[in-house]
Amino acid sequence: LQIALESEAFYIGALGSRKNHEARCQRLIDAGSSEEDVRTKIHGPVGLDIAAKTPAEIAVSILAQMILCQGNV
Q1: 13, 8, 4, 28: which is closest to 67 by C-alpha?
Q2: Tens digits of pLDDT across the chain (73 residues)
């Protein structure tokens, strides 16, 4: 994740619960990553909350979030 944060990537998706995501973000900040980059680039749990269950629905939720984020670049 640190390498991805240093790249030109506008979107980084991360799996895991909200609790795990917060802990992950804090570890990255503590390790020296920019808090702004961590909070704006890394999206976790990955995808929009559309109650996706199947792999296809999860893929759609992730792509929708990527499109939404791309508009904010």
Answers
A1: 13
A2: 999 999 999 899 999 999 999 999 999 999 999 999 999 999 999 999 999 999 999 999 999 999 999 877 5
Both tokens of residue 53? Answer: 């269950």
pTM: 0.82
> What secondary structure letter does DSSP report for 40?
H
